[in-house]
Amino acid sequence: MQQERTDTFPQPLGLFDLSGRVALVTGGTRGLGRAIVRALAQAGADVIVASRKQDACEEAAAEVRRLGRRALAHVCHVAHWDEIDRLVADSYAEFGQVDVLVNNAGLAPTYPDPQGVTEELWDKTLGVNLKGPFRLTSLVGARMCEGSGGSIVNISSIGGVRPTHDILPYAAAKAGLNALTIGFADAFGPKVRVNAIMPGPFRTDISRHWNHDAFNERAKTFPLRRAGEPEELASAVLYFASDASSFTTGAVLAVDGGAQWSLAGGGDAVPGYTSIYDGKRDWT
Known about the structure:
CATH class: Alpha Beta
Number of helices: 7
Distance between the termini: 55 Å
Structural class: alpha/beta
Radius of gyration: 19 Å
Strand content: 5-15%
Helix content: 25-40%
Low-confidence stretches: 273-284
Mean pLDDT: 88
Shape: globular
CATH architecture: 3-Layer(aba) Sandwich
Strand order of the largest sheet: 3-2-1-4-6-7-8
Largest sheet: 7 strands, parallel
C-alpha cells in the first residue's frame, strides 16, 4: 500500500509566481529577450535589463515599471568581461540579489561560405554566444550558491544540434552553450538549477530579414507548420525560472515547433532546401 504523503506543495499556478525575486536578462530589449523580460515581470519579478544600447534598455525597463515592478537598465556588451563584471556589481548593489539569470544575448552574422568566415566574425560570434554567458554564469551562479539559490536559463538554438552550412560559428557556440549548461548544473547544484532552451524559428523583428518564400516552404516540413511567437518562448523561460521546474536541472529543451526533426520531403512540403536567411541575424 502506498504511503500517504503528508507534505504539501503550492498549487500549480502558484509555482510560477516570481514575486520578490530579481531577474537579470541579457539582450532584453527586443525580440525574444523583450518577451522574456515582459513575462518575468508579469509573473512578479523585478528585472535588470541588459543590452548594448542605453536608450533601448531604458525603454524596456520602463515597460517593467508600468507592470508595477522595479527595473534597472544597464548597458553591457556580454563579449567584454569587464562590462559583465560591472553589470553584476551594479545589479547586486541595486537589488542585493539575483534569483534568475537569463543568458539571452546572441549574434549570428551571415557569411558567403565557410572559407569566408573571418577571424573577426568567428571571435565576435563566440564572444557573444559563449564567452559572455560563461563569465556571467560563473559570477552570478557563485553568488546564488552563497545565497538562497536561484535559476539560470541559457537561450541556445536548435542550430547547436542541427547545424547547417550557413550558421557554423553560431552553431558551434550554441553547442558549447549546451555543454556549459550541463557542466554548470553539476558545478552549482544543488542550490542553483541551470537549464537551456533551444528555440527554432520565431517571428521577431529579426524575421524581417528572412527570405519568406523560402521559409514558408521550409515551414511546411515542420510538425506545427509555422514559426513561433515570442510569447511561446517566454513561457518556457518562465517554467525554468520558477519553482515549477524545481526538480529540473541540466536540461536542454527544444522549443521549435518540431523544426529540428523536419524532413526535406516531410509534412506538406516538396523535397529541397533553401536557406531562409537573407541578412544579418543579431539577437543581442
